[in-house]
Design brief:
286 residues, alpha/beta, seven-stranded parallel β-sheet
């Protein structure tokens, strides 16, 4: 049962100001906190723990949202988060979206040290090298989660994992799998190779065709896909680090695929090959 009136009246409240400033990267880094907006992200945050501590530390909700998502409010309280009923003005002040959904959570950073990812001996990894668009980063993270990848790595030249657009684009997947941040691409590649992972650079100008690689049965082992900036792709020095540079075949007249679509195709191709008992013919065949 929620109170009938908001507890936080003024958008100038100290708690509101502290949450609002997390929209900026320097404050996120200083406080090691970030915002998760909307029911899906908040629900996942409420059920997540990092280093033994609940990830969700604070939740702002309108009365309407608290009534509609009573299960999320209950989960947040069970996790020990402070829950504040707030006016729509307060939510609008904190939110980074045009049309807030009435729930904004404050979460602890949850990235995983790169060494822990290597120690887990992952079989499928997505590496984001020089990916600057937060929407792309979040969507690739979501694709990696859906394909069953065991980790995502953001290099030191990539966007902030906790950018609100990246968090929204991940649609909760940020809370599902380990993510390492700020790893130099050379270190990421060398570490994964030492762990027995084959490095595949995804590039439209690659000298190997994805379908042909699947046909030859080379995709069944542990692999890490390296994805670059959508505008200019992977630099030559990054492609040179890979064990193979692979292109997604374009069978129609499209000029290219966007980053997230290409990532989904590549990750699912590896996932299928790894799960197949007798090999597989083509990622486009059922």
């Amino acid at each position: 049962m929620v109170p009938v009136s908001p507890e936080l009246i003024s958008p100038r409240s100290a708690r509101v100001s502290a949450a609002r400033r997390l929209g900026k990267r320097n404050f996120r880094g200083k406080d090691r906190l970030f915002l998760a907006e909307g029911p899906q992200a908040v629900r996942e945050a409420a059920g997540h723990r990092s280093d033994g501590h609940p990830t969700l530390v604070e939740l702002f909700a309108t009365v309407e949202a608290a009534e509609r998502y009573a299960d999320i409010i209950g989960a947040a309280r069970d996790a020990g988060a402070r829950v504040h009923l707030a006016s729509e003005d307060v939510i609008a002040e904190i939110s980074t979206t045009v049309t807030p959904q009435g729930l904004v959570g404050v979460c602890r950073f949850l990235d995983t040290p790169f060494e822990e990812i290597l120690a887990a001996r992952p079989k499928l990894v997505a590496v984001l090298a020089h990916v600057r668009d937060p929407g792309n980063a979040g969507t690739v993270l979501r694709c990696a989660d859906a394909a069953g990848a065991e980790a995502v790595i953001l290099t030191d030249a990539s966007v902030d994992l906790y950018n609100p657009k990246a968090v929204r684009a991940s649609v909760g997947s940020l809370f599902h799998l380990p993510v390492a941040v700020g790893v130099p691409v050379e270190r990421a590649v060398a570490g994964l190779q030492d762990a027995g992972v084959r490095i595949l650079a995804a590039d439209g100008a690659g000298d190997r065709d994805l379908d042909e690689e699947l046909d030859k049965g080379t995709m069944g082992g542990p692999s890490a896909w390296v994805f670059g900036n959508e505008a200019w792709g992977l630099p030559e020095e990054t492609r040179a680090l890979a064990d193979a540079v692979v292109r997604v075949p374009i069978h129609g007249k499209a000029e290219s695929l966007n980053l997230a679509t290409a990532a989904a195709v590549c990750l699912y191709a590896s996932a299928r090959a790894q799960r197949a008992s007798g090999g597989c013919r083509s990622v486009t065949q059922s």
